[in-house]
Structures are given as structure tokens and as C-alpha cells.
Amino acid sequence: MGCEFQCAARIGRRAVVGLGLGLALAPRLALAQTEPARERPKEGDLLVPASEGNPEPLKPDDLQLDGKPTFVWPMDPDTKTVRSGSRLNKVLLLRLEPEGLDPETRDRAADGVVGYSAICVHTGCDVTGWDPARQLLHCPCHDSTYDPKDAAKVVSGPAPRRLPALPLKVVDSRLVVAKPFTGRAGFQQM
């Protein structure tokens, strides 16, 4: 009899503490999921440089042909909310010769501009390296290399999958998100 009552009492206290903790965190979790700056890129979002204080939407001609990647954030065109509240929203843009893109990549590009998640799918580092001679993206953390002309296919390194692409289009001469990322941005813990 003694253990049954004591065991039930301990389980009851744990449940109450767990419920209380869950209720205390619920508003923060809900806010994080609905905060406009944390929302993933959406169809119709404009793209603005990640480094500027006053965001000005980019045009294809703002990017140098075969130049290094430009890091950008999506921006809601109506509210002007820059979706920089989550690093998973960071996008890298490259302007490449459209004829050099594979068909899948060409379909997602806008005037030769391709967009990919800037977060490596291996361990979540920023993909900051660019080899202009080979036209390959590189993650400096563990040497994963991606081919942006071939849907960001993994060329070498430990990355388990391609970088998610962000399909683009041009509207009123500005770069616009055509569809959400083609896959989950970031890495997946095992």
C-alpha cells in the first residue's frame, strides 16, 4: 500500500510540473512560429541584401555574372518585413549563364539567377566559399562542395543531400520568390 500511494503521488507531481512548464513555454513557442520575421520564404517575397540596413529589392542585373554569391533575406512586399528572424531563411544568390544550367536548375532560375539555402545540410554552417574557376559552392566547416549549375548537387564532402533551392522569377524587373524552398533548409540531426 505504501509504494502505491507514494508512486502515484510522485507521478502526479511530475505531471503537474510538466504541465506547468508546458503552459509556461507555450506562448513563446506560438510566438516563434507566428512571428513574421521568422516565417519561411513565401511566394511573392522580394529578395534584399543581407548586409544593408535599408533593404532595397534586388534585380538580376544587381548580381555580377559568374561573381561570388550574394547573401539575401526574403522580404514581405506588403509589410516590408524582412524575414531575418531565423538564419534558416538566409539565401545565397548566384548569377550564372543560363545555357550552363541543367534543365531542373534553369526552370527554377530567373534570368540566370539561382537561389539556394545558405545553410549547409551537413552541420548547419554558412556556405560561404565560392570557387570561381570551377563554379562550385563550398562550406568551409567540413569541406562539402555543391554544384549550383546542377541543382546544388553534392560534388564532394560529407553533406548528405543537395542544398534546397529557392525557385525564383522576375516581376517588375525585381527578383521574387516563385515557390518555397524545394526541401528542408538546414541540417537534420541523427
Helical run tally = 2
CATH architecture of the largest domain: 3-layer Sandwich
Strand order of the largest sheet: 1-2-3-4
Helix/strand order, N-terminal first: HEEEHEEEEEEE
Radius of gyration: 21 Å
The averaged pLDDT comes out at: 87
The SS-based structural class is: alpha+beta
| Number of extended strands | 10
What's the number of domains? Answer: 2
Largest sheet entry: 4 strands, antiparallel
Helix content: 10-25%
Unreliable residue stretches: none
Predict the CATH topology of the largest domain.
Rieske Iron-sulfur Protein
The CATH homologous superfamily of the largest domain is termed Rieske [2Fe-2S] iron-sulphur domain
| Residues in β-strands, percent | 15-25%
C-alpha termini separation: 44 Å
Shape: globular
CATH level 1 name of the largest domain: Mainly Beta
SSE diagram, text form:
Layout: H1 2-34, E1 46-49, E2 70-75, E3 91-95, H2 103-108, E4 113-117, E5 129-131, E6 136-138, E7 145-147, E8 153-156, E9 168-171, E10 174-177
Antiparallel strand pairs: 1-2, 2-3, 3-4, 5-6, 6-7, 7-8, 9-10
